[in-house]
Amino acid sequence: MPAELAEENREAAVFQRLGPEALARLRARFAEVKARIAERQMDEPEREQLKERAERLNPDGWVTDTDVDDGLEQYEAVYESLRAVIGHARKRRLP
Fold first, then answer.
1. pLDDT digits over 8-29, tens only?
2. Which contacts (CB < 8 Å, 24+ apart) does range 21-29 have?
3. Other CB atoms closer than 10 Å to residue 28's CB: what's the count?
4. Which end of the chain is more exposed for a tag (fewer CB within 10 A), N or C?
């Protein structure tokens, strides 16, 4: 993470609550969910609905302490509901 970004994030409620490692994991998981939604064959209204639900997993959208509390409280339920539709991430096979 670039120094200026790290400095900016240190002030954010989500950074204060989770720390850099957990925040990075949640960001990576959110990116994976967005990618899985983009890969799936579905009609556009369904895709938009899934994107809206997935946005609740975006830790960068959790601005206040209340946002962080709500995001963490709902996280697993939202993630599992999306995973039921988009499936699990594919495991990579080692050669």
1. 566 688 998 999 899 999 999 9
2. 23/59, 26/57, 26/59, 26/75, 27/59, 27/60, 29/57, 29/79
3. 10
4. C
